[in-house]
Amino acid sequence: MRTVLESPPTLVSVLGTAYRRLTGICEALTVEVADPRTAYDQPAFTGAELMSDQSALDAFLEAEATRIHTRFAHTPRSHVTASRALHDYAWSVALLMSGVWYLERRVPRIRPQSVRLDLAAGAYTITPEPRVACLPGDPVAALPGAVTVAGEEALRAELRAAVADHMRPLLTALGPAVRRGPRALWGMVGDDLVSGIWYLGRTLGREEDAVRAATALLPEPVSPYPSGADFRLLTGTDGRRHTTRTRAGCCLYYAIRPDEACGTCPRVCDTERLRRLEE
Question: Where would I find the Ferric siderophore reductase C-terminal domain in this sequence (predicted)?
């Protein structure tokens, strides 16, 4: 009987497995892991093209405007379209990195050219790269492309930096269309970084643990993020306590559905938040 030898693991295969695990858990994360045999039938651009090619950025925003109109029968103003597109991109890419950190205690570095966007579907494809930070003793530490950091806080710093490094050129490119300054833009990125971890924890039935992790990641403003995680508890009429936070940067969903603003929107008071949470 012939013995079939398995290929030794690489960072690409390890991260591919981690991304697939993450997307399997998170229904709202519309990301596929790249298969080099896949052909793209729809107009698609890389994240790098959005940051350097105005025609790609225009197509990205036009596709978002079309999705909003199709879903809500609403024609958004241009800065609303840009805000919604930025929010979706930041939430998705940040969760790819923060989700692997939360589940695996590893921080992948994702370059913009490794993210591909299917404009028609509003979906993303990630190409894993051999670029990861890990803790001492991690089995992947010996693999080419792995960088070992001193401990948990150093790993959190790596995550903050990895998300910031990816998003910085996109904020520069999209800033004029969003019509907000750097503080508001970085506030949105910080919100999406925190909310992705929170969402993952709730999905796994581990909300309290995820809130602790997100709070340790952003315990206070840490440049370039202008705000900490800032979770707090609301007590309902039945004595139950509910976790909430207030976004530092608005995603402008309220401009599309005024009566359905996000539960963490600065425009939503605590009374309304509790009403929704207790429904």
Answer: 247-267
d(CA 181, CA 171): 10
Q: Which amino acid is at 71?
A: R
Tell me the average pLDDT across 57-86: 93
Please give the order of strands across the beta sheet that includes 106-108.
Answer: 106-108, 132-134, 146-148
Largest distance between two CA atoms of the chain: 69
Task: Characterize the bridge pairing of strands 44-46 and 115-118.
Answer: antiparallel
Half-sphere exposure of 22 (CA within 13 A, CB side): 29
pLDDT digits (tens, 9 = 90+) for 136-187: 999 999 999 999 999 999 999 999 999 999 999 999 999 999 999 999 999 9
**Residue 251: its pLDDT value, please?**
84
Q: DSSP alpha helices (H): ranges in the chain?
A: 11-25, 47-52, 54-72, 78-104, 152-178, 182-203, 207-217, 270-277
Q: What is the pLDDT of residues 197-222, one digit of tens each?
A: 999 999 999 999 999 999 999 999 99
pTM exceeds cut of 0.85: yes
Looking from the CA of 272 toward its CB, the CA atoms found within 13 Å total 11
Residue 277's pLDDT is what? 86
Q: What is the side-by-side order of every strand in the sheet holding 123-126?
A: 31-33, 123-126, 115-118, 44-46
Distance CA 9, CA 20 (A): 16
Round to whole Å and give the CA distance between 107 and 44.
26
What sign results for the dihedral spanned by CA atoms 128, 133, 138, 142? positive
